[in-house]
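User: hey, got a sec? need Helix-turn-helix transcriptional regulator folded
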Amino acid sequence: MASNVNPTVRRRRLGQELRRLREVKGMTAEEVAERLLVSQSKISRLENGRRSISQRDVRDLCGVYEVEDQRVVESLMEMARDSRQQGWWHAFGDIPYSVYIGLETDAESLRVYEPQIITGLLQTRSYAEALIQGALPETSAADIDKRVQVRMRRQERIAAENNPLRLWVVLDEAALRRVVGNNLVMREQLEHLAEMSQLPHVTVQVLPFGVGAHPGLNGQYAILEFADAADSSVVYLEGVTSDLYLEKAHDVQKYAVMYEHLRAQALNVDQSRQFITDAAKEYAR
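Assistant: Yep! Here you go:
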């Protein structure tokens, strides 16, 4: 697979284009489904990029939308071929959040709010192992190791020399106080966090308990933004059995505004780094 082909992003772009063609035609998803003798949910999944799409699907949909320009049809079919290829994460087998990994791999910037744990892209290996063991007590050692390997691989975006991921993280103080593993693991994790926060493309802010009630009390979320104007921003909400991806402009805007409030209420960058450094020292006692 070519290194610049991200199947998740290809599916998403293809779905957006198919939705545009349907809307130009003035048809509803239900009407298209009825014409093709498929379920309306299939059309919706194809358009939101959550399902792989075959060249036959593209051909049939272009027929319904009466696309006469063969170059457009061929371009969409090429995107369908790319979307069925495998990303690097598929080498690790079945990864529950593979859609998110595909989006993160192609994102230009990522804003994260974490109320309970250190965000995955800034975790040490020891912290990640202890965290996964605690969060998924029935997971085998082999599966834990696989998840840790994937997490470490994801972190390569932060260390990349060319076009590294721009990361902004707001951490609740609880993430620093919750002992994951043991004191040694926590000390190393917080020292690593303070070190990473000095990178020019990584910003870390701490939201102390003293702030009281704040807009992030509903839980963790992430906002992914992309360099290509054709790719709209995505809000990612992680669930126990399934994840939620919000792409409608008003949904993304609501979470973006909420993030600005969190950043404003959190300690500034220098204060946060000192707060993290002091917390790390407490684990050395």
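Quick note: The mean pLDDT is 88. Let me know if you need anything else on Helix-turn-helix transcriptional regulator.
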